[in-house]
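Supplementary material to the annual report.
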Amino acid sequence: MNTTKPTDSVVNIKALCKSYAGQRVVDDIDLQVQRGECFGLLGPNGAGKTTTLRMMLGMTPVDSGELKLLGQLISPRSHQIRQRIGVVPQMDNLDPDFSVIENLLTYASYFNLSGKAVSQRIQDLLEFAHLTQKADAQIDSLSGGMKRRLTLARALINDPELLILDEPTTGLDPQARQHIWQRLRELRHSGHTLILTTHYMEEAQRLCDRIAIMDHGKVIVQGSPQELIETHTEPHVIEVMGEDVERWQQQFLPNNLLRLEMLGESLFIYTEDEKPVIEELCKSNHQDFIHRRANLEDVFLKMTGRDLRE
Amino acid sequence: MQTVKHITWLRWYPVWSRNMHVWRKLIGPALLGNIGEPLLYLVALGYGLGSFLGQKIEGLEYVVFLASGLVCSSAMNTASFEGMYSAYTRMAVQDTWIGMLTAPLTIRDIIVAEVIWAGTKSVISVTSILLVAAAMGLVSDAMAILVLPLGWLVGACFGSMALVMTSVAKNYDFFLYYFTLLVTPMLLLSGVFFPITGMPEAVQVGAKILPLYHALALMRPLMLGQVPTDILLHVAVLVLYILVAMPIAIHLISRRLLR
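Predicted assembly:
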């Protein structure tokens, strides 16, 4: 499908900056996304993820730095590049006056696509999104998951090389989310390049080959989920719960050589060797604990802190 | 599948076509409004009020005078509503324009399409009234057909102005300023319901600065089968309003959406 060589970078960002009212929302970031990769952009609210995506699409002017997509420099005048890109926006903006199939037909017309080829493509996309039965349904009658799938199908109407998804599963129930994940995996296997933002660490860990964690407009870390977990956090986590956690900690873990985090009534213990802690917990008869492998969420919370972001 | 590059000057077409498609879905209430309202005005004011006048206005029966005025004011109203309430809905409520911007379309394409569309809506509305007036025997000359292309120009003019308001609107209520301060005064003081020759000088000057007066100066004679005077001047005023308002709307909406 793609004629360019398979290892070239689809996104190339150097020293990219953007300020609003004197405040840097994207602060000197560097990112590369390779062809065929699924790349995740993670970060708390206000970290600069959406602004970065908007700049990629030429929908937000760049203050300084270099931004290349599919080999082209992006500016607010580079709308032609969007002929080769698919976009799933954070908020659904389906046309409420149109049926499912009319939404796809209308969107195709924005790409100057019409005729038989499009009808066939729409049938394929309806099948891909499991919406064939709903082709003539009005948008109001669709569930949140169906709307999301339709938005995904719409983003694929122009057979894009690159798909940009801003929080593709926010607000969906677990079944609907699984469904979207499956579709995204299929797209990745068929050679599409995917860039997505998400708040769900599980989503990033399952889908992404590589991720970048952003905070306060900067990229703090980049790498594969496994790399990040190995590099930035201890392999074992023990979550101790209960009202008397603090007393227990002072009594049984006095020599604080472990990395500890308190969150509400839970104590998170990060360690290379989980056995002594578990033994201590059993000995002191504290039953209320979970032992698990460290995951991306632990990395995320370590890198961005536990303060609430609004 | 082959993706074809857009022909630049036709990129407005899919946006216009989308609006047309939505309009066709809601054609029932739309046409009822287009036909019902002028019909009521013609019957109530034209015959009701007209019967008390006892004299001709500019040599015309009042109802004939009024019919040509209503054709014009409906072109203004339709395009103003379309450029404000409907365009604002597409811009700020349904995010329709944002969706178009993630396709290879630009703000310019969208605004050009919206102006052409506002003109189209005015033509639809002018056509409806023309048919009503003709059915009532108020149109006597085939030249009246020329008000249709003129209706487009008037609609494009008021649509462009309305889009400037939309570009700075924070909510629907904002448009009341424009209607109260500009549209309603124009409707009442430009010569739709009565000639403005009896009005104070200042009001007449004010009316001549605004576009509705010029639209009327072109439409009324055409409706009666006469050739308007100063055609170039009146057309130039309407075109000038488009040429000034449309770039302002494009600039302000770009600033609003492409932050």
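Chain B has one domain: 14-257.
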